[in-house]
Amino acid sequence: MYFTDRGIEELRSRRGEEEVSFDWLADRLREFVDLNPEFEVPVERLATWLARLDEDEDE
Q1: Is the pTM value of this prediction over 0.85?
Q2: Which residues of the chain form beta strands (DSSP E)?
C-alpha cells in the first residue's frame, strides 16, 4: 500500500456516494494549486492523465 492510498481511501469513504462533474473537479484542482503551488506539477500530471484515459495507446 502506498502512502497516498490513505488519502484515496478517505476520499472514497467520505465522498464515494457523491457524483461530481469534471467542471467541479477542475475547479477544485485549480483551488488546490492556488493554495499549494508546490503541487502544480503533480496536479497537472494527474489532470492530463485523467483527460487522456480513453486515448488509444497507438496515438
Answers
A1: no
A2: none
Q: How far is residue 28's CA from residue 39's CA, in Å, rounded to a whole number?
A: 13
User: What's the chain's length in residues?
Assistant: 59
What confidence score (pLDDT) does residue 57 get? 65
**The C-alpha cell of 6 is what?**
490513505
Distance CA 49, CA 55 (A): 10
pLDDT at site 4: 73
Q: Which position has the grid cell 493554495?
A: 35
From the number of C-beta atoms within 10 Å of its C-beta (0-12, 13-18, 19+), residue 3 rates as exposed
